[in-house]
Design a protein that fits this description.
The chain is an alpha/beta fold and 259 residues long. The protein has a single domain (4-248), classed as 3-Layer(aba) Sandwich (Rossmann fold), CATH 3.40.50. It is built from 8 helices and 7 strands; from the N terminus they run E-H-E-H-E-H-E-H-E-H-E-H-H-H-E. The chain has helices at 22-33, 45-59, 73-87, 110-137, 161-181, 199-207, 211-218, 231-238; strands spanning 13-17, 37-42, 64-67, 92-95, 141-146, 186-193, 249-252. The chain has a 7-stranded parallel sheet with strand order 3-2-1-4-5-6-7, sandwiched between helices. The longest helix has 28 residues, at 110-137. It starts with 12 loop residues before the first strand and ends in a 7-residue tail after the last strand. 46% of the residues are buried. Bound molecules: NADPH dihydro-nicotinamide-adenine-dinucleotide phosphate. NADPH dihydro-nicotinamide-adenine-dinucleotide phosphate is lined by residues 17-18, 20-24, 42-44, 47, 68-71, 96-99, 119, 123, 146, 148, 193, 195-196, 198-201.
Length: 259
Amino acid sequence: MTVLDAFDLDGQTAIVTGGNRGIGRAIANALAEAGANVVIANRDVALGEEAATKIADTTGTDTFAVECDVTDEDAVEAMVEATVERFDGIDVLVNNAGIVIHEAIETMSLKEWSTVLETNLTGAFICSRAAGREMMQNGGGVILNVSSMSAFIANYPQRQVAYNASKAGLEGFKNQLASEWAEFDIRVNNLAPGYVATDNADQGAQVAENAVDTWEGEMLLDEMATPEMLGPTAVYLTSDASAYMTGETIVLDGGYTVR
Ligand code: NDP
């Protein structure tokens, strides 16, 4: 045994919500490179299938896509059922699916607020409940929520109050879930990225002039992360390398929040 063996996910089964693009796709690929069979769960199943095929081809793992809206209880239950049918259990759930709506609070509709909360926070609850029940029966597992540095700070110049509330909610969710499910050997941790170059960040860049310059001016490491930069930390948090860690958050933000 070497220290690197602790990062091995060989033969494990991992669900990654929002695994068809952006951060989720990079995490799905990283977990597969570490040996996991990955289920990619999101709404655009054609893009999910394209990602799954590519990941399976390059890693040799059994990776497939399921159409799933994380806000739809029945769709989530069906996705979990399909996973268990194929792999006999679930070892890892990555709650990554998330959206942002850039709108000032004074003009934000209740629908906009609710859509963000339902996707980013309620979606994590629905998926954790469904996958957690399976993990309990199988002797445990790992849940990783993709939170955000926005759980801890105010972003600017863009307006995104619902998003920050949802990510702060994921922090409380993680603390309580880790506490309640420790007795079932289910570990729960959060990964809180700073700005990462994806569609999500592009949206923010378009609503405010000089947004990217403003963000990068706050970072000690000068540039936004690529999605792939999150892969190694996701492997750490979902493997035995973090076996003694639960109820914690790793902030990976290029030194944004320290300043
Ligand atoms: P993208 O917009 O690139 O991807 C979002 C992903 O979420 C897509 O795969 C999308 O798939 C999926 N998704 C959205 N809504 C749903 C839904 N209702 N059900 C299932 N899947 C859904 O964003 P990122 O990759 O940047 O974001 C991924 C996560 O990382 C999010 O939680 C985000 O908040 C977080 N994050 C992002 C940061 C950044 O700077 N980019 C910084 C910090 C955190 P589909 O549309 O097919 O359903």
